[in-house]
Design goal:
Blueprint lengths: L4 H8 L3 H8 L7 H13 L6 H8 L4 E6 L5 H16 L3 E6 L4 H13 L4 E4 L6 H8 L5 E4 L8 E3 L3 H14 L4 E5 L12 H16 L7 E3 L4 H5 L10 E5 L2 H13 L8 E4 L16 E3 L2 H18 L11 E3 L5
Parallel strand pairs: 1-2, 1-3, 3-4, 4-5, 6-7, 6-8, 8-9
Antiparallel strand pairs: 10-11
Length: 329
């Protein structure tokens, strides 16, 4: 038979309320009593009845998370940070993936809402008045990360445009005058919410203008960006910089250049964006923008849990970033 709080209370000679306080680490109980209750619960292999608990508390202690996919290593880092912080605060995480499809994202939201999650952390591909009206009908807190929707929705991110401008400043300071920009998500421009990628592209252009780079850059928006690179020639006389909107693209570009015998950074410099954790195993060390991916995850959980438990989001200013000066530029 399933062990209940009442069973533990009977054995320990205390009330069910005292057992509940011990199991949920609440105040109003001595350390001696708490220790005894926890030991008995462990010996009896007590498992909480989350369904009953949710009925009593009016919440499921679950946070829904909607991401694109897990192909980008930074998303895995983000989820790990979210899950760890949620667990520390007593919440579970329900993960769904939209595959970057607006209609799939709507399905994910409906699934999580119907599953009675207490709040949603959303990396959206949707935007516009109709989408905002749709979100507004749900009586649960929603916090957005990366892709901004509007000032109506709590948002956690960085100054994407400024980060890319600073990256261009650094590249120009290293003597590069010819630029290639790679960002396949730009193919969705005007079709879905690609706020982060738009901001990075704008920062790229503004960085070139600020540094008086007058040569026209090559902009590659295709998922077949390696094939497009095959049409370009590189020489030591005119150092070219390939700026990628994520580290994942940058790593594939570096792999291609090495296969072609193109020296990095002597002939071609490569810049990434994110500073994913596997870069420490890559040679030459990729120059990139350090994105505070794990801090974003932790802040998102802290803010939304505070909203659930106390009624207000934790105000979160745009977070800091850092130019990581590797060996590829």
């Amino acid at each position: 038979m399933k062990v209940t709080i009442k069973d533990i209370a009977t054995i320990c000679g205390v009330s069910a309320g005292t057992v509940d306080r011990a199991l949920n680490n609440r105040t109003g109980i001595s350390e001696k009593t708490k220790k005894k209750i926890l030991e008995v619960a462990k010996e009896m292999n007590y498992q909480p009845d989350y369904t009953a608990r949710s009925l009593v508390m009016g919440k499921t202690m679950t946070i829904g998370v909607i991401l694109f996919d897990l192909h980008n290593r930074s998303f895995a880092q983000l989820l790990n940070a979210i899950e760890l912080k949620a667990r520390q605060l007593g919440y579970f995480v329900n993960i769904t993936l939209s595959d970057k499809k607006p209609e799939s994202e709507i399905d994910c939201i409906n699934y999580l809402v119907n599953g009675k999650v207490d709040g949603i952390i959303l990396f959206t591909v949707n935007k516009g008045e109709q989408f905002e009206s749709y979100l507004s009908k749900f009586d649960i807190p929603i916090i957005t990360i990366f892709n901004y929707i509007s000032e109506k929705w709590e948002y956690i991110g960085i100054r994407e445009r400024q980060a890319m401008k600073d990256a261009i400043d650094y590249i120009v300071s290293q003597g590069y005058q010819k630029f290639i920009y790679i960002s396949p998500p730009l193919a969705y421009l005007g079709k879905s919410n690609i706020y982060t990628q738009e901001e990075r592209l704008n920062g790229f252009y503004e960085g070139l203008k600020r540094n008086r780079i007058h040569s026209k850059p090559v902009i590659i928006k295709s998922s077949e960006y390696i094939k497009e690179l095959e049409n370009l020639t590189f020489s030591k006389n005119e150092k070219a910089a390939i700026v990628c909107s994520t580290d994942l693209y940058a790593l594939k570009v570096m792999h291609y250049l090495k296969k072609q015998g193109v020296s990095i950074p002597e002939q071609v410099g490569v810049m990434g964006f994110d500073d994913i954790d596997i870069l420490e195993y890559v040679t030459p060390r990729l120059t990139t923008v350090k994105y505070p991916i794990e801090e974003i995850g932790r802040r998102a959980i802290e803010s939304i849990v505070n909203k659930i438990d106390h009624g207000d989001f934790v105000p979160t200013p745009l977070l800091d970033y850092e130019i990581i000066k590797g060996e590829s530029i």
